[in-house]
Amino acid sequence: MEKVYNPEFSRIVEINEHVLNKKFEILANEEELRKLADRFGLYCIKNLSLKYIITNKTNISKTYILAAEMKSSITKFIMEDSEENIEINEKFDVLLLTKEIQKENEDQLKEFDIEILSDCNSVDIGEIASQYLSLFVFM
User: Fold this and answer.
1) Does the pTM exceed 0.85?
2) In Å, how far are 59, 117, 119, 126 from 100, measured between CA atoms?
């Protein structure tokens, strides 16, 4: 039986004129926070919000910039009478593009974080947020 991919925090967004240049915010619910904490081996994630905007990257056709700001309160662990809590308030940018565009513009894209768009021009903003959450917690 094939394992079905079921991300803990999923928000699939189709890239089109309805989402470009507009500000959005997504929030993780209690179940998503619990599943993310389990995924990353954390005691608990109290909250997670992501504000973002998607814009065109002007110098490369059919390429978009996801500019995001993440906020989260996390308890990494509790041991006896001590606990480690962290507050995350970070910004990041990711280029959204197809594999073909990535190959055609490889030299220009070396310095960027990249997420490949699906065949239907969509991307899972929640999964991108999850990956960055992990980076911010463990860096």
Assistant:
1) yes
2) 16, 10, 11, 24
